[in-house]
């Protein structure tokens, strides 16, 4: 059985590399994209088991992507560069399961991923 | 942090003076902290330690987190150290990291970097089995640890790992005012501080488990072959056992004043105003010493060497001849070229290597200005004690600012240093400026408690009979005994 795919959206290449290493080490198949258009293509394509969306560097159109993930029934976590009430509100409204503030704690991310992928 | 089986074996630091301070070097198989501000010489000191090991056929490993390996080797070469025999594990950031935008914030750097760093280090240690390791600097681990507890744990475990592998470990730290390194000082088996200020460079040891060490600050300097350390002088030998033979000045009246001469292993302060003849008197003793076949050394701080040599010839002091015959060395000390500690060491080495019996420091204030140190008098004290113990007769000239007037021996409060004090004065008598010589103090013998007139002529020093017919000599304005008014020549 192939590893369940996890979409990772991040503008920073190095962040994506590190996230991909982590996700792969947890037994998932990382699907890494730096742009929102690429991300939408992935949402429209393979059945994703979960998604991690780092909103840093994106404009408000990132929330449209989040709504698309909700419509496609892909559970996702919003990753934010800072703690923000507004971000939490928008994340909740767009269907995010959780908001995590960077830097991520590996143990917590591991549990979250497991919870997302297993429904 | 000591290994399971501590050893009495010592490991050289590669710097002779530092080994001396550490009483033979660093106890092997332990860890030591090298701390100091930017540019204080931590890496250079560490390189000396590693190259000393490499020169002995040991394996030396430098783990660098800041400077890249090529830069370290280049910098070593520029200060006169050949680092080609050292293995370097380069964990410094690569230029590509900047160019390719390698920064990240998704995870804490401590989470990301720690394992790769650990793996790199263990791989290198397993392969090389180093005998000596320098970690430059261990402060990097603060950024790999999420908190102080983790930092301490990581440093402890890293150092223990290296010690267990059989290495003696040095690590540098970059302490700042905002972030100290007391935790590292507690962890280490020894702590060496490197300091740099306007007075110069200094090294100080504050801790060394399993060994004594010489405390205090010791001078340090970059030379053509790297760093040199000049330990503060300790008293050399037992001054009580020195033969107190009195050495003659060659002028009978001066010997009479001095109760026979100046004893070996004593310090004599020759005090007086400018131009009165202090240096000439000192060289008179050296001329007489040369006549006995004994060597002298004169350290000149104030005067140009050539001028001194020429004018001495004019008063029957053949200094050039004495130098040519090997009985005298006249050394001009250029201002601010060396610290007090280095100077003291050089004088002691001169005495040891050439069996020098008489040493002149001309003058005390010149010495203070010339040597780079914030405590020159303490160094001078140590030097005098060391030379006393070696049986050397030390002469120090000391200039008093006032030409006449109230009597003063020393404006610097250092007369306690001297075993003997000879003072020279100007006096005014019958409208003429004359000179007087007297002895104020003589530790090991009696002395004549009169003043005598003296002259410096083309034939040398001439000293007359005691000036028993005059009074007020020490005030500088004399009058004849039994006269009520100063002697103006017309009896009124």
Number of helices of chain B: 14
Mean pLDDT of chain B: 88
Could you give the order of strands across the largest sheet of chain A? 2-1-3-4-5
Rg from Cα of chain A: 13 Å
Our estimate of the beta-strand percent of chain A is 15-25%
Give the structural class of chain B: alpha/beta
Quaternary status of these chains?
Answer: heterodimer
State which percent range the strand residues of chain B make up. 25-35%
Strand order of the largest sheet of chain B: 5-4-6-7-3-8-9-10-11
Rounded to the nearest angstrom, the distance between the terminal CA atoms of chain B is 89 Å
Following the backbone from N to C, one meets helices and strands of chain A in this order, namely EHEHEHEHEH
Q: Biggest sheet of chain B: strands, sense, closure?
A: 9 strands, mixed
Strand count of chain A: 5
- Most extensive chain contact? A-B, 16 and 10 residues
Largest sheet geometry of chain A: 5 strands, parallel
Shape designation of chain B: elongated
Q: Mind telling me the C-alpha Rg of chain B?
A: 30 Å
Low-pLDDT stretches of chain B are 2-6, 485-492
The portion of residues assigned to helices of chain A is: 40-55%
Portion of residues in helices of chain B?
Answer: 25-40%
Structure characterization notes:
The complex is a heterodimer of chains A (119) and B (492). Chain A has helices at residues 13-25, 36-44, 61-71, 85-93, 106-117; strands at residues 5-9, 29-33, 50-54, 76-80, 98-101. Chain A has 119 residues and is α/β, with parallel strands linked by helices. A 5-stranded parallel sheet of chain A has the order 2-1-3-4-5, sandwiched between helices. In chain A, β1, α1 (13-25) and β2 form a beta-alpha-beta unit. Chain B has helices at residues 16-21, 42-55, 69-78, 95-99, 109-128, 148-164, 182-187, 252-257, 278-291, 305-313, 319-324, 340-354, 364-370, 376-389, and strands at residues 10-11, 26-27, 31-36, 60-64, 87-90, 132-136, 168-173, 190-197, 200-208, 218-223, 226-230, 246-247, 262-263, 267-273, 295-300, 328-332, 356-362, 393-400, 420-429, 432-442, 452-457, 460-466, 470-471, 479-480. The model of chain B is unreliable at 2-6 and 485-492 (pLDDT under 50). Classes of the chains: A alpha/beta (119), B alpha/beta (492). At the A-B interface, α1 of A face loops of B.
